[in-house]
Amino acid sequence: MEHGVITRWLVENAGRLPQLIPDQILKLKQLTVLTLASTYEVLAYDQMMQELDVTNVLELQDFLINECMYSGLVRGKLDHLRQCFVVQFAACRDLRPAKLGSMIETLSNWLSTSENLLVSIQEKIKWADDRDEIEKKHRKCVEDNLREVKNTLVKANSAIRTQEDNEVRCVLKRRRHITF
Q1: Per residue in 136-176, pLDDT tens?
Q2: Where would I find the PCI domain in this sequence (predicted)?
Q3: Closest CA to 68 of 48, 90, 53
């Protein structure tokens, strides 16, 4: 069976099949829309009405909106002027054997892209870690230099005070020796 001919097949084989309940018919119609939406980007109303055994456009639009779009099977736009449904999203269905190679290729490409992205992220992390290490060393060097300058200033200040104190003492001693 090709995509979307489920309803037609059911009609043709109705005599050999048990009677379907409404929920089963609904499910088959939803699967038909899903198959069509997975295959084509634009679905003509005429084709869908034929595939779904729907008699008018209003009934088709109600079915698409209420039974397919609201349930999350498909997302798209109903184009009244062009009499079509423009598919934006279709939920996944079981993979057909003919599509297996394509799916493997898609997944292989995704894996390759993911691996490349992971390598790139790891390189960026290493670069950031290296920069952080350089910044830490620079910060430590600046702090060491600052501490050394502070110590030098403290020592210089202490030496200046000592020298000033000595000069003051000398002046005081001289004044004591000079009497008027």
Answers
A1: 999 999 999 999 988 888 887 777 777 777 777 777 666 66
A2: 1-92
A3: 90
Q: Are 86 and 41 spatial neighbours (Cβ–Cβ below 8 Å)?
A: yes
86: β partners: 42, 77
Assigned token pair, 87: 């598919």
For 93, phi then psi, to 5°, come to -120, 175
| Residue 95 CB partners (closer than 8 Å, separation 6+) | 103
- The three-class DSSP label of residue 159 is helix
- Residues 32 and 4: their CA atoms lie apart, in Å, by 5
Q: How many residues does the chain have?
A: 180
CA-angle at 112, arms to 109 and 115, nearest 5°? 150
Say if domain 6-90 classifies as CATH 1.10.3720.10: no
For 75, list phi and psi in degrees, rounded to 5. -135, 140
pTM for the model stands at 0.49
Domain boundaries, the chain: 6-90, 97-177
**CB-based burial of residue 137 (10 Å sphere; 0-12 exposed, 13-18 middle, 19+ buried)?**
exposed
